[in-house]
Design goal:
Elements lengths: L20 E6 L2 E7 L9 E5 L10 H6 L5 E6 L14 H15 L4 E6 L1 H12 L4 E7 L10 H10 L3 H11 L2 H12 L8 H14 L5 H17 L6 H7 L4 E6 L10 H7 L3 E6 L6 H4 L1 H12 L1
Parallel strand pairs: 3-4, 3-5, 5-6, 6-7, 7-8
Antiparallel strand pairs: 1-2, 2-4
Length: 304
């Protein structure tokens, strides 16, 4: 889910400082891309990939904590944030756009960070083009899960051709305050721990997202892609991709995640050949936003 609004200035809290932004044409898509601020050009490159309904702003806090170790970029994927929808909505299509973006921006392997659906696209990217990836940090990646959960049923409803748009339309009719609190509860492990500044910025961004003409379609089509990935044959599944990833992998799961069941972490750690696990019992779906210090520390250990 998307997060922080436009807060700038060196005195702003780290999790609210916005990164410099630019437009990058990639594969017919006019991506909005943000750059990690104050990072030395000789540092190794990184790529930050948000999840369904999120944006590049989901990585602000973590990127600033690591700008002494990496220089990096965070794109708004097509249909999310401030990048218009342009036919690129599924996991394979996102991976293809990310490959083109990395080929354009860098001439060396990068450290890839992916959250939720962005984590799934990052796995596909690393499996297809291992030459582009130095390491993978996957935060609650949307890998197929054998257990049926409430969130799985919700995604199934969104993915249904006629039901999905109706669900989103009815949700949009709810009072904004109700949707706001529900969004916080869905994404964060403990919404009460958020500072007033972060809550206010999150609320402002939710208001902005309501005005995006492409938001509902991108969400429905993204949900369909997640559902399709869960139904793929074993040899063509994301788990098969995961088994091919040879670079170091940091897996981050939250004990209070309501969207990705953290119990899948055992299978994930067994499947990736070179996996390291960070389990945060109090974190929700976006550990890079709730517990960026712990994620940054684990990443430093991964590449040490």
């Amino acid at each position: 889910m998307d997060s922080y609004g436009p807060v700038t200035g060196d005195d702003a809290p780290a999790e609210l400082r916005q990164w410099p932004e630019r437009r990058v044409p990639v594969a017919g898509v006019d991506l909005l891309v943000r750059d990690v601020p104050d990072a030395a050009p000789e540092l190794p490159p990184a790529l930050f990939v948000h999840g369904l309904g999120g944006s590049s702003l989901n990585w602000t806090a973590l990127g600033l904590l690591l700008n002494d170790r990496i220089r990096g970029i965070a794109p708004d994927l097509p249909g999310f944030g401030r990048t218009p929808l342009s036919g690129v909505t599924g996991i394979p299509e996102q991976a293809a756009v990310l490959i083109r973006l990395l080929e354009r921006e860098y001439d060396e392997p990068v450290h890839v960070f992916g959250n939720s659906m962005g984590g799934a696209a990052s796995v596909a990217l690393a499996a297809q083009r291992p030459d582009l990836v130095a390491s993978l940090t996957l935060i609650s990646p949307a890998l197929p899960h054998p257990r049926v959960s409430a969130s799985a049923l919700w995604f199934t409803a969104l993915a249904t051709p006629r039901l999905g748009p109706v669900v989103l339309e009815r949700t949009a009719r709810l009072p904004f305050a109700q949707r706001f609190e529900a969004s916080l509860a869905l994404v964060f492990g403990d919404p009460r721990s958020l500072t007033p500044e972060v809550r206010a910025a999150y609320e402002a961004e939710l208001h902005r997202r309501d005005t995006d003409p492409w938001g509902r379609q991108a969400t429905v089509e993204g949900a369909r892609s997640i559902l399709r990935s869960s139904l793929a044959r074993p040899r063509r599944s994301l788990w098969a991709d995961a088994a091919r990833v040879q670079c170091p992998v940091l897996l981050v799961y939250g004990g209070r995640d309501r969207l990705v069941d953290a119990r899948i972490r055992t299978k994930a750690q067994r499947t990736f050949p070179n996996a390291h696990l960070l389990y945060l019992p109090q974190s929700g779906h976006v550990a890079q936003m709730e517990h960026p210090e712990e994620v940054a520390r684990a990443f430093r250990q991964l590449i040490a």
